[in-house]
Design a protein that fits this description.
The chain has about 230 residues and is of the alpha+beta class. It is built from 4 helices and 10 strands. The chain starts with a strand and ends in a 15-residue tail after the last helix. Residues about 220-225 have low confidence and may be disordered.
């Protein structure tokens, strides 16, 4: 997490060294909006990091106003972060709650896992993202900047316009994504701007904000689909 002015300087620095995200837009071709619905148990075991729930998160992510969404699981071990994701039409999100779901559906694994884990949507997190990409010695690298983060409770698989409460009003989250070893461009960045790594969870930050506002966290057994 860095102050907004520092994040802006890092972004400008990176634009001469990394390429814009090929799927982004904006004046520099590296900006888009992200909205995620995060899942948790009724007693918020993911938020409280209880047992095996501390290692995995389930969410549904949408980019901009796309008609497609990503069903995602993030699984963290002591040394690695693994992400599994499947893209499906937004109109098919209702299948997540289908008891007779056909195994041939691409999102079948996600539906079965959230059923087994007894998790449901509790929180929507939205933010602006800038993203730059490149190639390192072990494959692709990615640098992202997340700001204007907003949080609001949700009662199902329903994406709603950005509202709710702002998170990290004076800071942005800068994330370096790479494989095996940090590439030279990221080492240069860290040295130039004297930044230090820290563990950050947008879901936990969002839930902290909602708890500050004493907003009720609604739980539902059957997700609701909405654009």
């Amino acid at each position: 997490m860095v102050p907004l002015d520092v994040a802006a300087r890092i972004l400008e620095w990176s634009r001469s060294r990394l390429s814009p995200d090929p799927y982004a837009g904006g004046d520099a071709g590296d900006e888009y909006r992200t909205t995620s619905l995060y899942f948790d148990t009724e007693d918020l075991a993911v938020y409280h990091r209880r047992g095996s729930y501390r290692r995995s998160k389930y969410r549904v992510r949408r980019y901009g106003a796309s008609d497609w969404v990503f069903l995602e699981r993030k699984l963290r071990t002591a040394s690695l972060l693994n992400k599994r994701r499947t893209v499906v039409p937004i109109a098919e999100m209702a299948k997540v709650a289908d008891d007779d779901l056909a195994a041939a559906w691409s999102g079948h694994w996600f539906a079965r896992r959230i059923l087994a884990r007894r998790v449901a949507p509790v929180c929507q997190v939205s933010y602006r993202r800038h993203a730059r990409v490149g190639t390192g010695p072990y494959g692709p690298v990615r640098l992202t900047f997340d700001d204007t983060i907003r949080a609001q409770p949700t009662a199902g698989l329903r994406f709603v316009p950005d509202a709710g409460w702002q998170v990290l009003e004076s800071q942005a989250i800068v994330e370096m994504k790479f494989r095996v070893d940090m590439p030279a461009v990221f080492k240069h960045l860290a040295e130039t701007f004297k930044i230090q790594p820290t563990a950050v969870s947008k879901y936990r930050l969002a839930m902290d904000r909602l708890r500050q506002e004493e907003r009720p966290i609604a739980m539902v057994s059957t997700p609701i689909v909405g654009a």
